[in-house]
Amino acid sequence: MGDSKENNKGKSRDKDNYVWKDYLKSHPSHSKLRGKSMVDYEYLKIVVGGGVSSGNNSISVDPDDTDATTFEPENRTVGIEEFSYDPNSDTFITPNNYEPAYQPPSPNQPSPPSHPPLDSEVPIEKQNCHKRRRSEYGGSSSAVGINNQGNVLENLSVGIETIAVNFEKISNMMEKREKDRDRDRELEGIIWDVIKEIPNLDDITRFKTAKLLNTKAKKDFFLKMSPEERSSWINFKLGNN
Protein backbone atom coordinates (compact mmCIF):
# COMPACT_ATOMS: atom_id res chain seq x y z
CA MET A 1 0.00 0.00 0.00
CA GLY A 2 2.84 2.39 0.86
CA ASP A 3 4.60 1.71 -2.45
CA SER A 4 1.38 2.51 -4.31
CA LYS A 5 1.08 5.90 -2.60
CA GLU A 6 4.71 6.69 -3.35
CA ASN A 7 4.19 5.76 -7.01
CA ASN A 8 1.13 8.00 -7.23
CA LYS A 9 3.03 10.93 -5.71
CA GLY A 10 5.89 10.41 -8.14
CA LYS A 11 3.50 10.25 -11.05
CA SER A 12 1.82 13.46 -9.88
CA ARG A 13 5.17 15.24 -9.62
CA ASP A 14 6.10 14.08 -13.13
CA LYS A 15 2.83 15.48 -14.45
CA ASP A 16 3.36 18.77 -12.66
CA ASN A 17 6.85 19.06 -14.11
CA TYR A 18 5.45 18.26 -17.55
CA VAL A 19 2.81 20.98 -17.20
CA TRP A 20 5.34 23.57 -16.06
CA LYS A 21 7.72 22.64 -18.85
CA ASP A 22 5.11 23.22 -21.57
CA TYR A 23 3.77 26.34 -19.89
CA LEU A 24 7.20 27.98 -19.64
CA LYS A 25 7.84 27.29 -23.33
CA SER A 26 5.12 29.80 -24.15
CA HIS A 27 5.77 32.13 -21.20
CA PRO A 28 9.51 32.19 -20.38
CA SER A 29 9.14 35.33 -18.28
CA HIS A 30 6.94 33.45 -15.81
CA SER A 31 9.72 31.07 -14.72
CA LYS A 32 9.82 32.72 -11.29
CA LEU A 33 6.29 31.53 -10.65
CA ARG A 34 7.38 27.89 -10.51
CA GLY A 35 9.26 28.34 -7.25
CA LYS A 36 6.54 30.36 -5.53
CA SER A 37 3.61 29.17 -3.52
CA MET A 38 0.54 29.57 -5.72
CA VAL A 39 -2.63 30.24 -3.80
CA ASP A 40 -4.76 29.84 -6.92
CA TYR A 41 -2.89 26.94 -8.42
CA GLU A 42 -6.17 25.42 -9.59
CA TYR A 43 -6.68 28.39 -11.94
CA LEU A 44 -3.25 27.86 -13.39
CA LYS A 45 -4.12 24.23 -13.98
CA ILE A 46 -7.36 25.34 -15.57
CA VAL A 47 -5.54 27.58 -17.99
CA VAL A 48 -2.73 25.18 -18.79
CA GLY A 49 -5.05 22.21 -18.86
CA GLY A 50 -7.11 23.89 -21.58
CA GLY A 51 -4.23 23.42 -24.00
CA VAL A 52 -4.45 26.98 -25.28
CA SER A 53 -2.01 27.96 -28.05
CA SER A 54 -0.08 31.23 -27.65
CA GLY A 55 2.33 32.54 -30.30
CA ASN A 56 4.20 29.83 -32.16
CA ASN A 57 4.37 27.49 -29.15
CA SER A 58 1.53 25.46 -27.68
CA ILE A 59 0.68 23.99 -24.31
CA SER A 60 -0.63 20.47 -23.93
CA VAL A 61 -1.17 18.10 -21.03
CA ASP A 62 -1.12 14.38 -20.61
CA PRO A 63 -4.55 13.02 -21.64
CA ASP A 64 -4.36 10.70 -18.59
CA ASP A 65 -4.25 13.72 -16.27
CA THR A 66 -7.88 13.84 -15.18
CA ASP A 67 -7.13 15.76 -11.97
CA ALA A 68 -6.95 19.13 -13.75
CA THR A 69 -10.19 21.04 -13.53
CA THR A 70 -11.57 22.26 -16.86
CA PHE A 71 -13.33 25.57 -17.24
CA GLU A 72 -15.45 25.52 -20.39
CA PRO A 73 -18.47 27.87 -20.44
CA GLU A 74 -20.60 26.87 -23.39
CA ASN A 75 -17.94 24.38 -24.59
CA ARG A 76 -15.30 27.11 -24.99
CA THR A 77 -11.86 26.81 -23.39
CA VAL A 78 -10.34 29.66 -21.43
CA GLY A 79 -6.98 31.04 -22.64
CA ILE A 80 -4.29 32.16 -20.26
CA GLU A 81 -4.19 35.49 -22.05
CA GLU A 82 -7.65 36.19 -20.56
CA PHE A 83 -6.13 36.24 -17.03
CA SER A 84 -3.76 38.75 -15.45
CA TYR A 85 -1.20 37.82 -12.81
CA ASP A 86 -1.05 39.87 -9.61
CA PRO A 87 2.47 39.54 -8.08
CA ASN A 88 1.29 41.07 -4.79
CA SER A 89 -1.23 38.32 -4.10
CA ASP A 90 0.35 35.60 -6.29
CA THR A 91 -3.01 35.03 -7.97
CA PHE A 92 -4.44 35.04 -11.49
CA ILE A 93 -7.26 37.55 -11.82
CA THR A 94 -10.15 37.00 -14.23
CA PRO A 95 -11.13 40.19 -16.13
CA ASN A 96 -14.52 41.70 -15.34
CA ASN A 97 -15.61 41.92 -18.97
CA TYR A 98 -14.54 38.40 -19.75
CA GLU A 99 -15.70 36.99 -23.06
CA PRO A 100 -14.97 33.40 -24.08
CA ALA A 101 -12.42 32.86 -26.79
CA TYR A 102 -13.60 32.39 -30.33
CA GLN A 103 -14.76 28.87 -31.13
CA PRO A 104 -14.52 27.85 -34.78
CA PRO A 105 -17.78 26.59 -36.30
CA SER A 106 -18.49 22.90 -36.38
CA PRO A 107 -18.13 21.01 -39.67
CA ASN A 108 -21.92 20.61 -39.88
CA GLN A 109 -22.55 24.34 -39.54
CA PRO A 110 -22.85 26.04 -42.95
CA SER A 111 -20.02 28.46 -43.53
CA PRO A 112 -20.83 32.02 -44.65
CA PRO A 113 -20.19 32.89 -48.28
CA SER A 114 -16.64 33.91 -48.86
CA HIS A 115 -15.83 37.29 -50.36
CA PRO A 116 -12.90 37.83 -52.67
CA PRO A 117 -10.03 39.93 -51.29
CA LEU A 118 -9.78 43.54 -52.26
CA ASP A 119 -6.82 42.95 -54.53
CA SER A 120 -8.40 40.00 -56.34
CA GLU A 121 -9.37 40.33 -59.96
CA VAL A 122 -12.98 41.11 -60.76
CA PRO A 123 -14.52 39.08 -63.60
CA ILE A 124 -14.28 40.86 -66.93
CA GLU A 125 -18.01 40.51 -67.51
CA LYS A 126 -18.84 42.40 -64.31
CA GLN A 127 -16.28 45.08 -65.11
CA ASN A 128 -17.79 45.57 -68.54
CA CYS A 129 -21.24 45.71 -66.96
CA HIS A 130 -20.16 48.46 -64.56
CA LYS A 131 -18.41 50.35 -67.35
CA ARG A 132 -21.48 50.05 -69.53
CA ARG A 133 -23.71 51.35 -66.79
CA ARG A 134 -21.40 54.27 -66.16
CA SER A 135 -21.30 55.04 -69.87
CA GLU A 136 -25.06 54.76 -70.11
CA TYR A 137 -25.43 57.06 -67.13
CA GLY A 138 -22.97 59.51 -68.66
CA GLY A 139 -24.81 59.34 -71.97
CA SER A 140 -28.17 59.96 -70.34
CA SER A 141 -26.72 62.85 -68.35
CA SER A 142 -25.25 64.33 -71.53
CA ALA A 143 -28.59 63.95 -73.29
CA VAL A 144 -30.39 65.70 -70.44
CA GLY A 145 -27.79 68.47 -70.48
CA ILE A 146 -28.16 68.92 -74.25
CA ASN A 147 -31.95 69.03 -73.97
CA ASN A 148 -31.80 71.60 -71.19
CA GLN A 149 -29.34 73.69 -73.18
CA GLY A 150 -31.59 73.45 -76.23
CA ASN A 151 -34.60 74.60 -74.21
CA VAL A 152 -32.66 77.53 -72.79
CA LEU A 153 -31.49 78.60 -76.24
CA GLU A 154 -35.00 78.26 -77.64
CA ASN A 155 -36.50 80.35 -74.84
CA LEU A 156 -33.74 82.91 -75.26
CA SER A 157 -34.40 83.11 -78.99
CA VAL A 158 -38.14 83.59 -78.43
CA GLY A 159 -37.43 86.29 -75.86
CA ILE A 160 -35.10 88.12 -78.24
CA GLU A 161 -37.68 87.96 -81.03
CA THR A 162 -40.36 89.35 -78.72
CA ILE A 163 -38.10 92.20 -77.66
CA ALA A 164 -37.27 92.95 -81.28
CA VAL A 165 -40.97 93.04 -82.26
CA ASN A 166 -41.84 95.32 -79.36
CA PHE A 167 -38.91 97.57 -80.12
CA GLU A 168 -40.02 97.84 -83.73
CA LYS A 169 -43.56 98.74 -82.66
CA ILE A 170 -42.32 101.40 -80.27
CA SER A 171 -40.00 102.77 -82.92
CA ASN A 172 -42.84 103.01 -85.45
CA MET A 173 -45.07 104.74 -82.92
CA MET A 174 -42.38 107.27 -82.08
CA GLU A 175 -41.73 107.88 -85.75
CA LYS A 176 -45.44 108.40 -86.47
CA ARG A 177 -45.78 110.73 -83.51
CA GLU A 178 -42.84 112.76 -84.73
CA LYS A 179 -44.39 112.99 -88.19
CA ASP A 180 -47.69 114.11 -86.70
CA ARG A 181 -45.88 116.82 -84.75
CA ASP A 182 -44.13 118.00 -87.87
CA ARG A 183 -47.43 118.04 -89.74
CA ASP A 184 -49.12 119.92 -86.91
CA ARG A 185 -46.39 122.54 -87.02
CA GLU A 186 -46.80 122.75 -90.75
CA LEU A 187 -50.59 123.02 -90.43
CA GLU A 188 -50.25 125.72 -87.81
CA GLY A 189 -48.13 127.73 -90.19
CA ILE A 190 -50.56 127.09 -93.04
CA ILE A 191 -53.63 127.88 -90.89
CA TRP A 192 -52.14 131.16 -89.74
CA ASP A 193 -51.30 132.15 -93.31
CA VAL A 194 -54.83 131.24 -94.41
CA ILE A 195 -56.38 133.24 -91.56
CA LYS A 196 -54.30 136.28 -92.46
CA GLU A 197 -55.56 136.05 -96.07
CA ILE A 198 -59.21 136.40 -94.97
CA PRO A 199 -60.27 140.05 -95.57
CA ASN A 200 -61.81 142.39 -93.02
CA LEU A 201 -60.31 140.60 -89.93
CA ASP A 202 -58.45 142.47 -87.24
CA ASP A 203 -55.72 140.89 -85.13
CA ILE A 204 -58.06 140.05 -82.22
CA THR A 205 -60.40 138.17 -84.56
CA ARG A 206 -57.46 136.28 -86.11
CA PHE A 207 -56.17 135.19 -82.65
CA LYS A 208 -59.64 134.00 -81.65
CA THR A 209 -59.96 132.07 -84.92
CA ALA A 210 -56.57 130.36 -84.37
CA LYS A 211 -57.70 129.39 -80.87
CA LEU A 212 -60.88 127.82 -82.27
CA LEU A 213 -58.84 125.55 -84.56
CA ASN A 214 -57.37 123.50 -81.67
CA THR A 215 -57.70 120.04 -83.26
CA LYS A 216 -56.40 118.40 -86.37
CA ALA A 217 -59.96 117.68 -87.57
CA LYS A 218 -60.95 121.33 -87.26
CA LYS A 219 -57.81 122.42 -89.06
CA ASP A 220 -58.43 120.00 -91.93
CA PHE A 221 -62.07 121.10 -92.12
CA PHE A 222 -61.04 124.76 -92.14
CA LEU A 223 -58.52 124.24 -94.94
CA LYS A 224 -61.14 122.59 -97.14
CA MET A 225 -63.33 125.72 -97.05
CA SER A 226 -63.23 128.46 -99.60
CA PRO A 227 -62.18 131.98 -98.47
CA GLU A 228 -65.85 133.15 -98.30
CA GLU A 229 -66.88 130.06 -96.25
CA ARG A 230 -64.00 130.63 -93.84
CA SER A 231 -65.14 134.23 -93.23
CA SER A 232 -68.75 133.12 -92.63
CA TRP A 233 -67.59 130.31 -90.27
CA ILE A 234 -65.48 132.78 -88.25
CA ASN A 235 -68.39 135.21 -87.90
CA PHE A 236 -70.69 132.34 -86.84
CA LYS A 237 -68.29 130.98 -84.20
CA LEU A 238 -67.46 134.38 -82.76
CA GLY A 239 -71.10 135.63 -82.89
CA ASN A 240 -70.37 138.62 -85.01
CA ASN A 241 -73.65 138.33 -86.93
From TrEMBL:
InterPro entries named among the record's database cross-references: At2g29880-like, At2g29880-like_C
Compositional bias annotation for Pro residues: 102-116
UniProt feature, compositional bias: Polar residues: 86-97
Pfam families: At2g29880_C
Protein origin, superkingdom: Eukaryota
Region of interest called Disordered, as start-end residue ranges on this chain: 49-122
Positions of the At2g29880-like C-terminal domain: 191-237
Protein name: At2g29880-like C-terminal domain-containing protein
Organism annotation: Glycine max
